[in-house]
Design brief:
With about 190 residues, the chain is α+β, with helices and mostly antiparallel strands. It contains six helices and seven strands, in the order βαααβββαβαββα. Helix 1 packs across helix 3. It is globular and about 40 Å long.
Amino acid sequence: MLAASLIRPATAADAAGIANVHVESWRSTYPGMLPDRYLVGLSTATHERRWRGLLSGSAPPRGRRTFVAQGPGGRILGFASCGPQRTGLPGFGGEFYALYLLDQAQGQGLGRRFLAAMAQHLLAGDTQSAVVWVLRDNPSRYFYERLGGDLLAEQPISFAGAKLTEVAYGWTDLVPLARLAADPPVGG
């Protein structure tokens, strides 16, 4: 069990830590879903450059925000990002783009706290609803159901040479998610 972590907006200085979480969480989450050659070929340096570029601007692009979970010694244990919906599902203004945690940081309430932070951010920008897309075969998808997400849609996608299916969960009212920051953990 890790000590309590701080959830805060990410800065360019967090790029290396986010890149590490990005690569390590994909390698531990997606074996059997994505080709091994793709997962082995993931580059922390490439992801660090990408994240540094995304986080170096003076302000996040229109309503977008990335958060990190900072653990003991400043180590980045996870990240999450959100903003305007990109997929066109009617009735949902926001989207949770990513939520990834290192394996040892899972099961301690950080996922729940990330969703609360993202919901608070979207609500502050007058966005009342949001969706998240997740691979159907990812067992972590049930986390979204436990936190009130309704299964909305599914669609086939191709990624890294694999044929996959992703599903969308949605919240028509983000207020209950935003309140999770003050509630006890429910397994996320």
